[in-house]
Amino acid sequence: xxxxxxxxxxxxxxxxxxxxxxxxxxxxxxxxxxxxxxxxxxxxxxxxxxxxxxxxxxxxxxxxxxxxxxxxxxxxxxxxxxxxxxxxxxxxxxxxxxxxxxxxxxxxxxxxxxxxxxx
Length: 119
What we know:
This protein is mostly beta strands and 119 residues long. It has a single domain, classed as Immunoglobulin-like (Sandwich), CATH 2.60.40. It contains no helices and ten strands. Strands 1, 2, 5, 8, 9 and 10 form a six-stranded mixed β-sheet that branches. Strands 4-3-6-7 form a four-stranded antiparallel β-sheet, with no helix packed on it. The protein is globular, with a radius of gyration of 15 Å. The two termini are 21 Å apart.
C-alpha cells in the first residue's frame, strides 16, 4: 500500500483440540475460483509452530470466491500408528469487502472439525 501499511490478508490458525495445542506443519493452499468455477492456486504454505499462516494472499485482495484447502493426511500425535480419519478439508469463502482481512481458523479433533470467520 502507498502508506507502507500492509494490505488486507487471508489467514488461518489451525488448532489440534485432541492435544490442546497448535497444529504445526499443516499444508494449506489458497485458490481463487475463476469465472468457470475452476480453482486457480494462488499460494501454498505450512502452518508455523503456532499453527498459523499469517498471509496466504501475498497480493492485492480482489472480490470473488476463494478456497482454503487443508491437507490433513498423516499421523496424529496422540496415536502415531494411526492415520487421521479426515484427510482433507476445503472451505470456500466469498470476499466482497476488499478493505478488510479474512481470518479462517480451523479446530481439529480426531472425528470432527470446526471452522468459522474469525476476526
